[in-house]
Amino acid sequence: MKFSISKTQIILVVFMLIIETIVDASPITKRQSGGSHSGDGTYFNPGLGACGEQDNDSSMIVALAAPDFDPSTPNGNPNKNTLCGRGIRIYYNGKSVDGKVTDRCPECKSGDVDMSPAMFDTIADPSQGRIPITWDFI
Ligand SMILES: *[C@@H]1O[C@H](CO)[C@@H](O)[C@H](O)[C@H]1NC(C)=O
């Protein structure tokens, strides 16, 4: 049997899966590592968002990536997207900031979050422009 997997390998894989499950379930680990989604954090100048709300640079709001936002848009009307108004917590470098979903980011990849300047400034220096974040809905 050329391709047989040894008992030791199976035991090792099962053991790793168990450890991973325990680590994932631990609230302490979760808090340290941040949210369960990840992507790039960027910022933009909010205006009239896809959810139909008028925002500005001081608003604590985000635009979710189109591939994450669009599946929750019913009948092609983004104003009625069920993620509109949803709370979000973003983690970066030991810091976190809370905001609200009010817009859609057409150029973002799944997991990316485009933030208002006020939100971005809370967790990073604007000169950084693009930062690796993790996040969760809250
Ligand atoms: C900015 O938008 C927020 C809502 O996100 C609003 O409460 C606030 O009044 C606006 N500020 C200005 C200066 O328009």
Can you characterise this structure?
By secondary structure, this protein is an alpha/beta fold. It has one domain: RlpA-like domain (Barwin-like endoglucanases, Beta Barrel), CATH 2.40.40. Helix content is 27%, strand content 28%. It has four helices and six strands. The protein has helices at residues 7-25, 27-33, 66-69, 117-123; strands at residues 37-43, 61-65, 87-92, 95-105, 113-115, 131-137. The protein has a six-stranded mixed β-barrel with strand order 1-5-2-4-3-6. A hairpin with a 2-residue loop joins β3 (87-92) and β4 (95-105). The longest helix is centred in the N-terminal third of the chain and has 19 residues, at 7-25. The radius of gyration is 19 Å and the shape is globular. It starts with 6 loop residues before the first helix and ends with a strand. The relative contact order is 0.24. The site of 2-acetamido-2-deoxy-beta-D-glucopyranose has 4 residues, from loops. Residues 1-25 form the signal peptide. InterPro entries: Expansin_CellWall, RlpA-like_DPBB, RlpA-like_sf. This is 11588_t:CDS:1. Keywords: Signal. Residues 88-134 form the RlpA-like protein double-psi beta-barrel domain.
